[in-house]
Amino acid sequence: MDRSAIVAALSDDDPDQLKQLRCRAYEVKVRHFGRTVHLRGLIEFSNRCVKSCFYCGIRRDNSAVDRFSMTVDEIVQCALNSHRLGYGSVVLQSGERRDSDFVAFVDEAVRAVLKASGGELGVTLSCGEQSTDTYARWRAAGAKRYLLRIETSDPRLYAALHPADHSFADRVRCLWELKTIGYQVGTGVMIGLPGQTAEQLADDILFFGELDVDMIGMGPYIPHGETPLAASAVNFDKARNFQLGLKMIALTRLALGDVNIAAATALQALDPSGREKGVRFGANIIMPNVTPTVHRQRYQLYEGKPCLTDEPDACGNCLDARLRAVGERVALNEQGDSPHFVRRTEKT
Ligand code: 5AD
Ligand code: FES
């Protein structure tokens, strides 16, 4: 897929073309992964954050947010729940902090989760930008994957979406370091940001390729009322962002082949069957939320977050039925490593 073909596909609203794109991407997904989807139990363990990104509901400067941090025991309980439900992997996600208490806490949590599951759970971290030492320390604790979205690969758009002290170059450097340290590395972007063009989105896909990442997690941008960006999102077009989100999944699948691609929860926020549709457009990963319901409403990055009141077990059953309805099966009790990572590391 070259840049102009990606731009053309992103700009084309013809239903037949869209169907063709979906079928081609789904075929590649099936070739690499069969008709199976791997799950990761998502544990949103703290909404305390030192960053103040203009789009995000839990940004530091949103004083309306009730801040929380789970204990290691609470995290282990969530992880064991995921293990019992057969999810195979968990993602520990939080706002960004770099103080030594936080760094030690994450280290301890990773070790505790691995110990409690007898090493059976795969652990992914998604805790923002950190020093090389911290990344190495968490890797040594046993975390084997790391998610850090670049948010947009265009430095100018990045600068427009973040306060001046949030550095695009630092974020890119973090991604390269994560690879060097030996993580399976995931990145991604928000789709349909105010002012974002098809060319910028095409460049995002090329950026994923240049970085040679193993996993992609990206989803539609959805405004949050208590953020600076909400004002410029008056023209928010839900249907357009949803469709762009599906197209980006399909085009990324065609461009990158064997990487793990998640159907983001934000897709489900815009359409009740958004995640299944994501799978039909080439995604092979879903991240059901296993955060205790008491904390879930305090972790709202955007408005309309789904499953706010569902218990983890209910989400598991619901997902299973939804995937069966589109001819897919949940791969239970498997960690679901990125085949791209396996190939990439075999080569070196
Ligand atoms: N809409 C969609 N996604 C968002 N994120 C943060 N705020 C929003 C929003 N308003 C995404 C960012 C971040 C991830 C955890 O959530 O891409 O990396
Ligand atoms: Fe939560 Fe369906 S996945 S209710």
Can you offer a commentary on this structure?
By secondary structure, this protein is α/β, with parallel strands linked by helices. The chain has one domain: TIM Barrel. Helix content is 47%, strand content 13%. Strands 1, 2, 3, 4, 5, 6, 7, 8, 9 and 10 form a ten-stranded parallel beta sheet that branches. Helix 3 links the parallel strand 1 and strand 2. Helix 2 crosses helix 9, helix 4 runs parallel beside helix 5 and helix 8 runs parallel beside helix 9. The longest helix is centred in the first third of the chain and has 19 residues. It is globular and about 50 Å long. It starts with a helix and ends with a helix. The mean pLDDT is 96. 5'-deoxyadenosine binds next to loops.
Short description:
The protein is an alpha/beta fold and 348 residues long. Helix content is 47%, strand content 13%.
List the helices and strands and how they pair.
Blueprint: H1 3-11, H2 15-33, E1 36-46, H3 72-84, E2 89-94, H4 100-116, E3 122-126, H5 132-141, E4 145-147, H6 155-161, H7 168-181, E5 184-187, E6 190-191, H8 198-211, E7 215-220, H9 238-256, E8 260-263, H10 265-270, H11 274-280, E9 285-286, H12 293-296, H13 312-325, E10 329-331, H14 339-347
The structure holds 5'-deoxyadenosine (5AD) and FE2/S2 (inorganic) cluster.
- Small molecules bound in the structure, each named once: 5'-deoxyadenosine, FE2/S2 (inorganic) cluster
Q: What is the CATH first-level class name?
A: Alpha Beta
The fraction of residues assigned to DSSP E strands is 5-15%
How many alpha or pi helices?
14
Kindly provide the radius of gyration, computed on alpha-carbon positions and rounded to a whole number of angstroms.
19 Å
Distance between the termini: 26 Å
Task: Please name the CATH architecture.
Answer: Alpha-Beta Barrel
Overall mean pLDDT: 96
CATH domain fold name: TIM Barrel
Shape designation: globular
SSE arrangement, N to C: HHEHEHEHEHHEEHEHEHHEHHEH
